[in-house]
Write a structure and sequence with these properties.
The complex is a heterodimer.
Chain A lengths: L6 H13 L3 H22 L5 H29 L1 H6 L3 H4 L5 H32 L4 H28 L3 H19 L8 H13 L12 H24 L8
Chain B lengths: L9 E10 L2 E11 L2 E6 L6 H8 L7 E6 L2 E2 L10 E4 L11 H11 L8 H8 L15 H13 L5 E5 L7 H16 L3 E6 L2 H7 L2 E6 L2 E6 L1 H10 L2 E7 L2 H9 L4 E7 L2 E6 L2 H14 L4 E6 L4 H10 L1
Parallel strand pairs in B: 3-8, 3-9, 6-7, 7-8
Antiparallel strand pairs in B: 1-2, 1-4, 4-5, 9-10, 11-13, 11-14, 12-13
Helix pairs in contact in B: 2-3, 2-4, 3-4
Classes of the chains: A mainly alpha, B alpha/beta.
Chain lengths: 248, 309
């Protein structure tokens, strides 16, 4: 079978497909939301409160809603849309290791998510705190990046395992991440949101303020990497056994 | 000393495929060698399922599907030897035909600049339109783009699911000539169709699939003879059905007669002789025939007969 030489063409066709779909506009709107909130707050005044507001917006809006939903839409579209419309057959009927296909999908979804969420965090954060808290900005960026990468890996794999990945992913984001893992401390080790918050707080250092997690920084990084790695392995394994009927 | 026979290019051995309680293919066995084989059957017969099994896109529920002696499913390396033209129209709409075929070449590991992409596009006569997006293509053009993508790596086995769909007559003839040419160069071609005439014109061998089973196989003349020599049913309206029925009842070509609602239904096992005898009998009896219609000329009834044979 072929090796890394197929990654370029796979990334190219995935990126063109992903960015050309209408749902990318929805992703863009989601990513812009924190910037919109920051603009409204800045125009409303109150400099003394903006550093804390920045942390609150990050924890409750960016990391709870924007990052997971952006990752959900990108992750489930990267290969899910091709499975739905049948074009995936043109990739699977080739002597290409299924791991390379999954990797290409994850790379594209994660890169798009990192760019969108990263810019959103940096712009909204800079609007609120300017350059007065560079550690906080860097921490928030790092946390969002780690969370996006782990989320997109999970959602790409989910869309190979089920045709209802969007619904399943939404249930995971709303129920598990949004409620269960937040409410019950014992479950936080199984929460990608907590990994991101742990990285954000760890990188922000003294500027972290109320930003934080029960999960230590290194643990958060390791678990995020483990989740992404496990998702990759499960996705490649499932794709290797994927069947395409005449109904697509 | 015994000779070891080389593995056939494609071999199915007692293959079945089911989805829950639905059996799509049941106990199918055949081998393919270089040449064109047509898979003929009505819609829903299991042709696409069989093609997808051969192409390694489905795991058989029972039996084995082998390409060059290796299982077709679960081994992406098989696609070095196999080119697939799926039935579904879906192609990447944002790619041009050239980009689509180039993608196929790249995923086959073909080096850039060998001209394989251009040759494949010229083979299907898409050279002039190659730089247009596939979203602007007609159904027939997309079909040709899929064929070009499947041919770019010069596969030993080419599997095509309803390849003539959407093609105009000239394109169809060109595609048929292409398939014959490929077969003449030693390629194994397997294509499906529900139209006997399409299969007749290009396939040297025909596999008839009905309700998931292999109902008949052979060259198209044998299949055509089976279909012609089967029992036929006719419906007659005449000036005196009862009198004509009395005359027909004694004929050895007639195997059954039914009166119903002013209509005479006749079954015959010798189609050719019956159609010669009928007008003579009616004329001799002074009976006028107002209507003579075949009652079972649909392809489905032909296939049904082949299954029950």
């Amino acid at each position: 079978m072929l090796g890394a030489s197929v990654l370029g063409p796979l990334v190219d066709v995935t990126a063109r497909g992903l960015l050309g779909r209408r749902r990318i506009l929805l992703v863009g709107l989601l990513a812009v939301a924190p910037v919109g909130v920051a603009v409204v707050l800045v125009l409303g005044g109150g400099l003394g409160a903006t550093a804390q507001i920045t942390r609150d917006i990050y924890a409750s809006l960016v990391m709870t809603t924007v990052v997971p939903l952006v990752a959900l839409i990108l992750g489930t579209t990267a290969i899910g849309a091709e499975i739905d419309d049948g074009t995936v057959v043109h990739l699977l009927a080739k002597p290409v290791g299924r791991g390379w296909i999954i990797l290409a999908k994850m790379l594209v979804a994660a890169t798009a998510g990192v760019v969108l969420c990263g810019v959103s965090v940096l712009v909204s954060g800079a609007l609120l705190v300017g350059l007065d808290a560079p550690g906080l900005l860097l921490g928030m960026l790092a946390g969002a990046v780690v969370a996006v990468i782990a989320y997109t890996a999970v959602f790409v794999t989910l869309s190979v395992w089920t045709g209802r990945a969007l619904v399943a992913g939404l249930a995971y984001v709303l129920l598990w991440e949004g409620f269960i893992a937040s409410a019950f401390s014992g479950t936080r080790l199984l929460s990608i949101r907590e990994y991101g918050l742990a990285v954000a707080a760890g990188i922000a250092g003294p500027e972290k303020g109320t930003l934080g997690s029960d999960v230590p920084l290194v643990t958060g990084l390791v678990l995020a990497a483990a989740v992404a790695g496990l998702a990759f392995a499960l996705g490649a394994r499932r794709l290797a056994r994927f069947e395409i009927s005449d109904a697509g | 000393m015994s000779e070891t026979r080389p593995a056939p290019a494609v071999a199915l051995n007692a293959v079945a495929k089911w989805y829950g309680n639905v059996v799509a293919v049941n106990d199918v066995t055949f081998e393919l060698e270089p040449g064109v084989t047509g898979l003929l059957g009505p819609n829903g017969a299991g042709k696409s399922t069989l093609l997808h099994l051969v192409a390694g896109l489905l795991r058989p529920s029972a039996g084995r599907v082998l390409v060059d002696g290796r299982p077709s499913f679960g081994d992406p390396a098989v696609y070095r030897r196999v080119g697939l033209v799926p039935e579904r129209e879906a192609v990447f709409p944002y790619l041009t035909a050239r980009e689509f075929v180039r993608l196929s070449a790249q995923l086959q590991g073909l080096p850039i600049g060998t001209g394989a992409v251009d040759r494949a596009l010229e083979t299907v006569e898409l050279g002039a339109a190659a730089d247009r997006e596939l979203s602007t293509y007609s159904k027939g053009m997309r079909q040709r783009a899929k064929v070009a993508a499947a041919l770019v790596h010069d596969p030993a086995v080419l599997v095509l699911d309803e390849p003539f769909n959407g093609m105009d007559p000239r394109q169809r003839l060109h595609m048929m000539a292409l398939l014959r040419s490929l077969a003449g160069r030693g390629r194994v071609i397997l294509f499906s169709s529900h139209i006997l005439e399409e299969v007749e014109r290009v396939a040297e061998r025909v596999l008839v699939v009905v309700s998931g089973r292999l109902a008949a196989s052979g060259d198209f003349r044998e299949i055509r003879r089976l279909m012609t020599d089967r029992p036929h049913s006719f419906t007659l309206r005449t000036s005196d059905d009862r009198a004509l029925a009395g005359r027909l009842a004694g004929r050895p070509t007639v195997s059954g007669l039914t009166f119903e609602d002013g209509r005479l239904d006749v079954r015959t096992a010798d189609f050719a002789t019956f159609t010669r005898e009928l007008p003579v009998l009616a004329r001799d009896a002074g009976i006028s025939i107002f209507e003579l219609a075949p009652a079972d000329e649909s392809l489905e009834s032909v296939f049904d007969y082949l299954v029950r044979r």
